[in-house]
Amino acid sequence: MIEILRSVFLGIVQGLTEFLPVSSSAHLNIFPWLFKWKDISPSFDLALHAGTLLAILVYFFKDWLSLLKGGWYTVTKKKADTNGRLFWYIVIATIPAGLLGMIMEKLIEKATGGDLNIEMIIISLALIVMGIVLYLVDKRAKSDVSLERLKFKPAFLIGLSQAIAGAIPGVSRSGITMTVGRAYHLDRESAAKYSFLLSAPMIAGALVVSIGDFKFSLAFLLGVLTSFLTGLFVIKFLMNYLKRGSFKVFAVYRVVIGVIILAISIFRLV
């Protein structure tokens, strides 16, 4: 029963934090560390991401159909429309981001030496630094570029930035992609939408590689279900919120939670 409750709780955490620019990987590390639970297995972490991947596919179902159609049209008709360009932007940006992310992740693992408290210090610093960067970029950036007007260079660099988030928990995939998007003057809704679309192939690729490690159980399935349902709610909330709101509240949250975790980490090391 306890395992089921933990799985549901972590599923909700994943669904809440995957799409908000606050880092789901950080929160999935923070809570077991705070409560001194056993570490989340890589396969269960991926399973929770499968739930939020499903939320992306369901919420943007019509968009995915248009993107796939546009991508196919580009190849067969040798002429790209807006959806065709976006489809190939996502494809081209995802491949190097995935490869670079794996290399950087190995380097970070060697640097921390597996010390959990050191990992939490890195997570807390990433939360704080990325929170400050997100706030400053979002505050100063114009919002004069829509997703339909996105060019190849910014589209590629936004996608490539995922590698940093994949290697350093606390950076946040959605956080860094939205920040880079805003730096290139994407309006907030467009930055969020492109961020969500970019994450799908990255998560799907990781799932394909590791699906053989999954250990299916009731707790496992409930974790996936809760991450899916919570993720759907959060996507809808954020897309509506960004029509008028800014990223300031998320930036402030990152800094506050980062300072708290940093203080606890140092206290536990002393």
Q: How would you portray this structure in words?
A:
- This protein has 270 residues and is an all-alpha fold.
- The chain has one domain.
- 79% of the residues lie in helices and 0% in strands.
- The protein is globular, with a radius of gyration of 18 Å.
Structure in a nutshell:
This protein is mainly α and 270 residues long.
Radius of gyration: 18 Å
- Helix percentage range: over 70%
Q: What is the molecular shape? A: globular
| Secondary structural class | mainly alpha
This entry's quaternary arrangement is single chain
Average pLDDT rating: 89
Tell me the total number of β-strands: 0
The helix/strand order is HHHHHHHHHHHH
Major sheet description: none
Poorly predicted runs of 5 or more residues = none
Report the β-strand fraction as a percent range: under 5%
Instruction: Return the domain count.
Output: 1
Distance between the termini: 35 Å
Number of continuous helical runs: 12
